[in-house]
Amino acid sequence: MLKVISTENAPAAVGPYSQAIEAGQFVYVSGQLPLIPGKGELVKGDIKAATKQSLENAKAILAEAGCSFNDVVKVTVLLNDITQFADMNQVYAEYFTEHKPARAAYEVANLPLFADVEIEMIAYKK
Fold first, then answer.
1. Consecutive H or E run containing 38
2. Which PROSITE patterns does the annotation name (predicted)?
3. 3-class DSSP state of 90
4. pLDDT in tens, 38-61
5. Does the reported pTM lie above 0.90?
6. Distance CA 59, CA 67 (A)
7. What is the CATH number of domain 2-124?
8. What does 11-74 look like in DSSP terms, one character per residue?
9. What is the pLDDT of residue 68?
């Protein structure tokens, strides 16, 4: 059974997709841009602040699904500039301290709204 996950504590989708989908024991969180919930403002020009906002958005969606970062099994990070990897990673490490899920990070040509970062994840709901 599929369940749509939606919360006002994270930005609404900027296209025809859901914030997350729960499928069985897995929660698939759509890529989170560094948009400020309720304002629609994009955090841009500071990769650390942008990474934090993207992770806070994902955190709110996970919470709505009854999960936390400790339940995340896979993360994908998309960066518009791979030279900012170390700064992104510094903030990321503050959210995944003891539990470290599998992860991939890529540089991409562009992201929606020309964001600096987008982060998606998959969680396993116990």
1. none
2. UPF0076 (PS01094)
3. helix
4. 998 999 999 999 999 999 999 999
5. yes
6. 8
7. 3.30.1330.40
8. PPPSSSS-SEEEETTEEEEEEE-SBPTTT-PBP-S-HHHHHHHHHHHHHHHHHHTT--GGGEEE
9. 98
